[in-house]
Write a structure and sequence with these properties.
Chains A, B: InterPro entries: CHAD_dom, CHAD_dom_sf. Two copies of one chain form a homodimer. By secondary structure, chain A is mainly alpha-helical. Chain A contains eleven helices and no strands.
């Protein structure tokens, strides 16, 4: 039943051989990967300045290099996802060796941007909580440019502490990414992708294998995982569920978040499977888009809340700083709850449409 | 239009003289006031133990005395509210002298209970935020009995700090209430109420005055005040409005709360006016009840949030304590937001029913 309403009823692969459809998609993504890699090298991706460069001279190159890294991750995720969903069509040795390498690469490249976005989110929240109208998005992409005039001492100190900690983490992530891109491990991945761009290692049976049951299985894994989510609770506004462990002694990431993160990954795999099947003509499913955005927001808010809690464990901070970080943590956990509500609302829409 | 759907369509005062209806109501409330006062004196309301007595010997007396104080406040509020709404029917000098005295009395008597309830709310929230299942309501009425085993150091210290501060405030409020009940000012109020119980000072025109336009005016004041509330925002879950000044430098009560507090008072006056008109047969309006409960919760959460913020300004507290108080403050401000949403939902129900 799940795949019935997750996939359009027509069969776009009719007439073309299943293996060819998958090979075309993988070749296109591999080509895109190589193009982004070239662009990343040309725009100073090998330079020493982190993505959020404050010097205007390095800004353009840094921004373009950030775009190139994003595009690189985008195709790496799509290749990896397709290898997973359409496993039976591909040479198992090759594809099983390839996936962890792609995951390593996109994980390494994602970190720098994640720290930068986290800092921007937290400083924006501090401003909002201080009743200040100015948000980072209105002052350009530089989160440090947020006016601190209206902030209380605690909020300003909390902002400075988060800025210090997350900027350090970002700089380290930047170095790690540079190191990764220069490593022999990376060159091996790039070589594999280059091979993929010309020749996809399909199994002999690939031509006769139907892609649709495999895509449907991905859709099923998604709907099963969604069914296991506490959606009834999430659909009740202000259920106060997300902050339930807000003061627990456990410093590990909240276990209640894990199933939502898992659904986020499965939703992505489902989306990629649809892209393989329907290609460029793939109709944009507004509902999947909204659900995916809610889950991205869920992940970002959960990580920001955790960063605020971790900053509060810095030794010798002032009580006012700790207080502001506590307010900030709770605020981001409520964002987590709001994102779950938004996901429930988006997902619900489909249930209504289904007869 | 407002009073059309706020009041039942029948005219229960038809056949009886308006002045008599109001006089009957006031006499009944005055009698109830005197009865509660007697009960309060008999059950040790004049004793030295605050309402939350820990000794089992004083517990019953203290509980009954608390009930008596509540009943005293209940009738004081009703008398005061009726004097206000039906002003033109009553001797102006007498009624204008009486109202501030009744307000002083019920305000003085309310404080002790308010501090006790606030502490219970905050300790309950600290437990909830620590992922502890035990809530104060399950361990009896004594908030100090909340198990602290699962609390982090910060949450436990925050709880102890709040316990200290609010218990001190409650003890002071208890003494102030005792002092008030022994004062000549109080005896003057009690004497006035005793007069009211036998003879209501109506104006000569009272018999010919219609109560309904006056009750309708009270209903109009309520609907006008509700119309001025930001209900569209409140109706969007997770609008993050209540925490907007969560970290602002201003330590005064949040100005955004004031119109909601005002609606709470006007809702009460409207309810009392209905009681005067319809007496004991007054149909219970579930919607008014739900709306009123939401506004009580709004007030309680706002004051609890403010108590947490004020505890965080205690000199020389540990950062972990301050952090827990920050989380607690934000949690209670979200309760404020949730209460506004609940009010909007309750109020909305009527709008749907109205053609």
């Amino acid at each position: 039943m799940a795949q019935q309403h997750l996939d359009p009823p027509t069969d776009p692969t009719a007439g073309s051989v299943a293996g060819d459809v998958l090979a075309d998609y993988l070749r296109a993504q591999a080509t895109e990967f190589l193009r982004s890699l070239r662009q990343h090298r040309e725009t100073g991706g090998g330079g020493g300045t982190p993505a959020r460069a404050n010097s205007s001279a390095g800004e353009n190159g840094s921004e373009e290099s950030g775009d190139a890294a994003r595009a690189l991750r985008r195709s790496a995720r799509r290749i990896s996802g397709s290898l997973h969903t359409f496993r039976p069509l591909l040479d198992p040795d090759w594809s099983e060796a390839m996936r962890p390498e792609l995951a390593w690469l996109s994980g390494t490249l994602a970190r720098e941007h994640a720290y930068s976005a986290r800092l921007e989110r937290l400083l924006g929240a501090l401003n909002r909580l201080s009743g200040s109208a100015a948000l980072p998005s209105q002052t350009g992409s530089d989160p440090a440019a947020v006016p601190k005039g209206q902030l209380t001492v605690g909020a300003a100190k909390a902002g400075a502490l988060l800025d210090r900690q997350l900027t350090l983490a970002r700089t380290r992530a930047h170095s790690a990414a540079l190191q990764a891109l220069g490593s022999s491990r990376f060159h091996a991945v790039a070589d594999s992708v280059a091979v993929l761009a010309s020749e996809v290692p399909l199994t002999p049976a690939a031509a006769a294998t139907d892609l649709r049951p495999l895509a449907a299985a991905a859709a099923d894994r998604l709907t099963d995982a969604v069914a296991a989510l506490p959606l009834v609770t999430a659909g009740h506004p202000y259920n106060a569920e997300a902050l339930v462990h807000g003061l627990s002694a456990d410093t590990a990431p909240q276990p209640q978040d894990a199933p939502w993160h898992q659904v986020r990954l499965l939703l992505r795999l489902h989306r990629y499977a649809r892209e393989v099947l329907y290609g460029e003509q793939c109709p944009v499913d507004v509902r999947l888009l909204a659900a995916g955005q809610a889950l991205n927001r869920h992940r970002d808010a959960a990580e920001a809340a955790s960063a605020a809690a971790s900053a509060a464990r810095t030794p010798r901070i002032a009580p006012a700083t700790a207080y502001a970080l506590g307010v900030l943590h709770a605020d981001q956990r409520h964002e987590v709850e709001a994102a779950r509500f938004a996901f429930q609302q988006a997902w619900q829409k489909e249930a209504v449409r289904t007869p």
